[in-house]
Design a protein that fits this description.
The mean pLDDT is 75. The protein has one domain: RNA polymerase sigma factor, region 2, helix turn helix motif (Rna Polymerase Sigma Factor, Chain: A, Orthogonal Bundle). It has four helices and no strands.
Length: 100
């Protein structure tokens, strides 16, 4: 499966739109599920997943085959997003406590 993804990355980098669509479909669900586990709220996880996808796509050309594609996704998106997520979790928890 990973070699199929690597081929899709190669095709997306040279401009194949269908390959890019395939990559987005492959990444989207995985990123959303991870964000949902971190944030525990579907709307927030959707927002975080979208932000991560926006960060990953421009970095496709930097993908090196010696690592797995999802490692690029996680390092591109979650490294900076995790700081934002931590802040969001704190903010959401605080606002929910105020509403109680």
């Amino acid at each position: 499966m990973e070699s199929d993804i690597e081929k899709q990355v190669e095709l997306a980098v040279i401009g194949e739109k269908k390959a890019l669509e395939n990559l987005v479909k492959y990444i989207q669900d995985r990123v959303y599920k991870l964000a949902l586990r971190m944030l525990a709220h579907p709307e927030d996880a959707e927002d975080a997943a979208q932000e991560i996808l926006i960060k990953v796509i421009p970095h496709l050309c930097s993908f090196r085959k010696e690592s797995k594609f999802m490692a690029l996704v996680i390092s591109s998106g979650f490294s900076s997003e995790s700081r934002n997520i931590s802040s969001e979790i704190t903010l959401m928890a605080t606002s929910r406590l105020r509403l109680s």
